[in-house]
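Async update (no meeting this week)

Hi team, since we skipped the sync, here's where things stand on the single-chain job. The sequence we agreed to prioritize is pasted below, unchanged from the tracker. I ran it this morning and attached the output directly underneath so nobody has to dig for it. Comments welcome in thread, and please keep replies under the output.
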Amino acid sequence: MSGTTVALMWEARAAAGRGAELLEWARARSAELAREPLRRELLRAPQDRVLVITWWEGAYGDELPELPEPDAGLITRPVHRWRFESLGDSGAAGN
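Output:
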């Protein structure tokens, strides 16, 4: 292993009135990933947006399990995806 941590972010906006359904869909899909991430977190925001962040040990370009695209009727736009490489936790003091 590289010793590097990569965070994958997946964000979608639910179709009108389907926020709870999108959240449950994302929760279920994140539990079905091909392997277990180091950590996972689900978040929600106004306008029925759902964010899933998973943390993985590996290099930035490694192939990592990602959440799929939901059915088009469940979301208002294509899913947004971001990938970040951790630079470590330098703490708040002295930054």
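Quick observations from my side:
The helical segments are 19-31.
Residues 4 and 58 are 5 Å apart (CA to CA).
Reply here if anything looks off.
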